[in-house]
Amino acid sequence: MIKVLHLSDIHLGSGFSHGRINPETGLNTRLEDFVKTLSFCIDRALKEPVDLVLFGGDAFPDATPLPVVQEAFAAQFRRLADANIPTVLLVGNHDQHSQGNGGASLCIYRTLAVPGFIVGDKLELHTITTQKGQIQVITLPWLTRSTLLTRPETEGLSLEQINYLLIEKLNPALEGEIRKLDPHLPTILLGHLMVDRATLGAERLLAVGKGFTVPLSILSRPEFEYVALGHVHKHQNLNKDNNPPIIYPGSIERVDFSEEKEEKGFVLVEIEKGKVNWEFCPLSVRPFCTLEVNVSEQTDPETAILNTLAKKDINDAVVRLIYHIRSEQLDLINTATLQEALSSAHSYTIRPELVSQLARPRLPELGVGTHLDPIEALKTYLNNRDDLKDIESDLLDAAQKLLNNDNTHEDELEDIENHSPKNQLTLL
Ligand SMILES: [Mn+2]
Prior knowledge:
By secondary structure, this protein is α/β, with parallel strands linked by helices. It is built from 13 helices and 17 strands. The strands form 4 sheets. The chain has a 6-stranded mixed beta sheet with strand order 4-3-2-1-13-14. It has a 6-stranded mixed beta sheet with strand order 5-6-7-10-12-11, with no helix packed on it. The protein has a 3-stranded parallel beta sheet with strand order 15-16-17, covered by helices on one side. Strand 16, helix 10 (335-341) and strand 17 form a beta-alpha-beta unit. Helix 1 runs parallel beside helix 2 (67-82) and helix 11 (374-383) packs antiparallel against helix 12. The longest helix is centred in the middle third of the chain and has 21 residues, at 159-179. It is globular, with a radius of gyration of 28 Å. The two termini are 33 Å apart. The structure holds manganese (II) ion. Manganese (II) ion binds next to loops. It holds the Pfam family Metallophos. Belongs to the SbcD family.
């Protein structure tokens, strides 16, 4: 069987705000973290050794990475070229220039003709010769309107209509590549895209407001042994039936706090015509830790925060401490004491959030635990507002009318909810 390592969403050079400058190297520690994790992936590819490496896109935060970042990426992938392991670098949305075609940051590998390296910046079939035989890879980079549509075709159309048109164009374009396939060779689709679980036909509705998404049914084809994806940072298999597995390996490092609870890793695949095994391989990456505590009712808020801190293992973690506090308590907190308590963290931020004074009821009758119907509540309020005495009866009339109409409004709301598409994935 042919062994493949599938990794994605490296985002090398992002998240610098969560690191600090390493005085020995002059580099941001988060760059060093990302490079270390990437080198683990490459180590594994060499140690197996695998016959092919597939990168699912988003190498850097944008198409013009700093030279030091670009070089760190190249130094890792060069190890694959040195070991004669064929590698496909797919172009993700972060690798594309906002103007023009292609992924400038990755196309340099094609320009330099790095042996065994393929840059996937078009929908295209590649037949790759590996140590264990041939394999077919169809590359499907991040699609934009300029990839499949011409300017006159999109003139005057809404974003929603353009997305619909893109799907209509993608289907036959992909079909064209599928017809070129040699039926005797194993095949992988490598795509950087957002998948919709919806079945074909509902795209028009589902495309609203969330950019271009590809229906799962377009990817779930019997011609593919494996569908290797990139773009979504949380690892998942979108096809529980596993025929074919449709896999996001996820990002290799935590890019921000939204990934705090996600396991990070890559995927090892063994493949031959009609057969595939895959396994998620976790990476040991730097922990992120959010500590959120409400001390607004505490007499000693500082001790309360320190107690919360003591319960968590924050060693070498990227920590954010958020505490909710009343403004008159602020003097009870010594920031230096908190900084001392956080000093074993890799990096930290401290964010006090003021509990809104407006939220505290000024009328005891309207406090928590008291139940009044809306009209009684309004009357209580108006009793305390002498300035509104003149229009008191008008206000009460208007309120009564609103309350009587309540049912109609609820129906309308329900109607809107029923028609709003539910998105199961986060766009990245
Ligand atoms: Mn992406």
